[in-house]
Structures are given as structure tokens and as C-alpha cells.
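Could you please consider the sequence and fold following this short note?
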Amino acid sequence: MLESLKRRGFMLVLSSPSGAGKTAIAHRILETEDNMSLSVSVTTRNPRPGEVNGKDYFFVDMPAFQGMIQRNEFLEHAQFCNNCYGTPREPVRKALEEGKDILFDIEWQGTQQIAENAREDLVSVFILPPSMEELERRLFSRAQDSKDTVKQRMATAASEMSHWNEYDYVIVNIDFEESVKNVRSIIQAERLKRQRQCGLASFVNSMRYQTTD
């Protein structure tokens, strides 16, 4: 009867103000967790150095993005810092049915949409920085954005952080390794949740009603 036990996958969402550490944590989780893959988003922003189309993002122009919205091809989509981001619906649906977990590195707007569309499959974690000063230091130290872009990201950080109480879990990213450990603990607990273990009732009943000579 053990072969009848199957687990439905879940969507693990990591959100934070830009620079608080969600992307670095996400990369470590993908390196260390079996059965966890990254949801590849569609975006209208330009690639950053080292980013690969189809691996990090699907890079499209605005007309193409709008067409996907009109065809209802997104599980969620949002605009952030003058760029659009969206999650293709069909690959996620298929993965969850196959018992695979999907990691999302998205903002609060997208998380709200997923909660509206598929709350039972969602596990959401908000990553906070230790302080605004540390957040600014991290943004400048990664040397990926211009000074004006960093200022823009800092200006929107307070608004982003106001959504912390919409998430299932909150982690203050003081120490990177400790934050990764905490996210992995969340993953293990969520994988054991009763409602995700398909066929569990039949499995238990088969043992309860077994007869012995």
C-alpha cells in the first residue's frame, strides 16, 4: 500500500525588499533541496550580467507580455520598478500534480495573486533585512544597479515591507546560513502536512482493517 501514497507539491514563495537576500537564499535552497526547482518568470526588464534567457528569466518585450496576460497564461503577474514580471501557469500546474515543489522568487503583488488563485498550494516566506542601512549597503555592494536605481529600490522598500503580515513565515536575514537553515526547516515541515499526502486515509484504513490469522 505504500506505493499508493503520493505527495502533492507546493509553491514556496520567497519575497523581500530588493537586496534583503531572497535570491541568494533561493539559490542555496535549490542547491541543497531535492525535488525543488525554480519557477522561471517572464519579465520585460533587460538581462543583468550573467543572466541567461530561459534559465534565469524569459526576457520578452511589453507587447509579448501583454499578449500573455490577455490569453490568461500567467498564474500571477505584477509590475515592479517600471518592469513587468509573470509566472507561466501551465508548467506549475503540471509540476504540483507530479509531486514536485516549485520555488518562487517574487514580490508581494504576485504572492497576493497566487494566494487568491491557489492558496492551498502556497507556502509563503517574507525575508526582512536587519536594518535599512544594511539593506542599502547590500544593494550597493552587489554592483548590479546604478545609483539612481538603488535610490529607487530604497524608496520602495518601506512599502514592500508593510506586507510582511500577509505571509505564512517571516525571517530576519541577519546571518545568511541561519536564514537558509530556517527556510529548509519550513520546507521539511510543509512536506509532511497531512493535506499534501494523497492517499493517506486509504493507507491508514488498510492497516486498521487488516486481519491476521
In short: The chain is about 40% helix and 20% strand. The radius of gyration is 19 Å.
